[in-house]
Structures are given as structure tokens and as C-alpha cells.
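Before any further analysis, we paired sequence with C-alpha cells, yielding the entry below:
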Amino acid sequence: MESLPDIPRVVQLPDGTHTYLHPAQLPAARPYPGPQVVHQHIHQAPPDRTVQRLALGTGIGAGTVAAGVYFGPLLVGVLTAMAANLALLAFLAAVCAWGVVTVVKSVGGADGRAAAKNVRRARARRR
């Protein structure tokens, strides 16, 4: 097999213009004599993939694992939102019950006391 012929390459000159040069005409690359700059990207630690590795090892397909990786955080978010809503509703129910009890105690006079007495008697008879 023959080697390919030298094809001219497009090179950008120091003044910013472009020109065609044969590879033989290109200057030899010289090493940079100055200090070497290390450009390092610092990222967060990668997520723990232990569960995914275990799942793949047990024969579950990669699609199932990918779905778990995608939908897992969504499920946690939805459950958290539901728990917050239920906690708010429970708090509102407790406040409403406290309000009803307070109003009944303050408004109820002799009739309220008589009704409470009748309820106590009825409970005592059932025992």
C-alpha cells in the first residue's frame, strides 16, 4: 500500500491570515520553554453507583438501571412534596379542632355542661 501524497494544509499565520502549506514547509514544533500551566478541572465527587452495579450484577438490564437513576430522584421529590402537603393538612386540622373546642367551651353554658354529663353517664353504663 502506498503512502498518501503530501496534501497542503490550511495554516493560520501569526498575523491572523490563513494560507496553504505543504507539511514539509511547516516549521518544526518547538517545546515551550516557559513554565508549564496545568489546567485542572475540579468537580464534585461522582455519585455512588453501588446500587446500580448490584442491579446489573443480578441480571437487571441497563435500561432498568437507567430508569432507576432517572426516576429515583423524581420519586424522592414527589414523596417529599406529598409528605409536606399532608403535614400542612394535619396542622390545619389540629388548628381547626382547637378552634372548635375553644369556641364550644366559651359559648356552652349550662346546656353544654348537662350534655357532657349525659355523655359521661352513657359511657359509664356501657362499661
User: Anything to note?
Assistant: The longest helix spans residues 62-107. The chain has a mean pLDDT of 79. Residues 23 and 105 are 99 Å apart (CA to CA).
